[in-house]
Amino acid sequence: MTDDIETGSDESIEQTARFESHLCLLSPIKQTIATNNQINIQAMDEREREGETPGWMREALQDLLCSV
Description:
Helix 2 runs antiparallel to helix 3. This protein has one domain. Helix content is 85%, strand content 0%. The protein has 3 helices and no strands. By secondary structure, it is mainly α.
């Protein structure tokens, strides 16, 4: 496999192109997840201010969502 990459065989070039196209597809998905996580964290902050959710629960959720 490393020989293929070093010589730049057609197969390794094709694999690299597929990998790069998959990365491009994942970028918008990752951004959507990050946006949704931020919305959830803000909603928890609002609930905490209203006394509905304890602060430790919001912090735990924030830690969980930010690790994705």
